[in-house]
Amino acid sequence: MPETATRRNAMPDTPFDLSRRRLCVILNLGSGRKDGREFAETLGKALKPRCAGFDLRQTPRGSDLVEMAQQAVADGFDIIVAAGGDGTQSAIAGALTGTEAIMGILPGGTFNYFARDLGVGESLEDALDTIREARVERIDIGLIENLVFLNNVSLGAYPHILKTRETIYRRWGRSRVAAYWSVLVALRRLRRPMVLTARLEGEARQFTTALLFVARSAYQLESFGLDGVEAVRNGQFAVLIARARKPLPLLRSALRLAFGFSAQDSDFDLIVTDELTIETPKKRLLIAHDGEKTVMASPLHLQVRQGALQVLLPADGTNKTRDAGG
Predict the structure, then answer these.
(1) N or C: lower Cβ tally within 10 Å for the chain?
(2) What Å distances lie between residue 133 and 104, 120, 315, CA to CA?
(3) Could you give all domains of the chain from N- to C-terminal order, each with its CATH number?
(4) Whether the Cβ atoms of residue 82 and residue 88 lie closer than 8 Å to each other
């Protein structure tokens, strides 16, 4: 079984028969650079003959995803496949959490941390193979207030990096180079750190920092060379709080992360927990979650919800991402 960021809760050992299930693909046309018509034809050929029922629903607006997933559940589909990037996966996971619907993953974004974490495959063909020959498992998810997240939540510098990234994407298109460039541009504009209180298990800890990063992706932490991987695999958060308060030292840390070099553990304080509350003097905060942005009110309560989401994984237990060299 592949090691992943999410602690697994195995379903009963019974065969998963796709031919007895109704499947709905929800395609976010705003993710990545896919040709919607060609993509839809590929999915239809690959999945329609294998299911008891098949439908493909498309939208260019990420704001439609939650309602579309909820409607697919109400329409009686057993499997809801999220086709898009991490933001798409997170939105649809939020709609399916706590239901009996099963989530499939077709990665189509820039980084695809969730798909990599679960080992379902980065290429379309590998991810389709996972759906066609799958097993079902329950996984843990993160909650910030009532919002589901799969990879990370952050406060401080990173939400503003996302704002800058959107501007750069509009001008230059989506790419990893553009994503990394947005880090440099945003951090150049950093002016002052934030003051926050982290409350967990009755203890209050004060921090002055430019960045707080709550991780639920072991794959992402491994990519960044940071501690907390085992904690995440054990169903907890790895909460990383940057020690740097000024632009230049924070920029050094961000550059190491952005360009794939190992970060230094001395750059961050690490808190391991499955539940905490974050409070700041500022009452409304811009929060980044799985590549998206939301304004939320302080204090913020975060918790791990165990076994809350059913997902399709490779039936033979292989990690298609790592087997492919990802």
Answers:
(1) N
(2) 12, 11, 6
(3) 8-142+307-323 (3.40.50.10330), 152-289 (2.60.200.40)
(4) yes
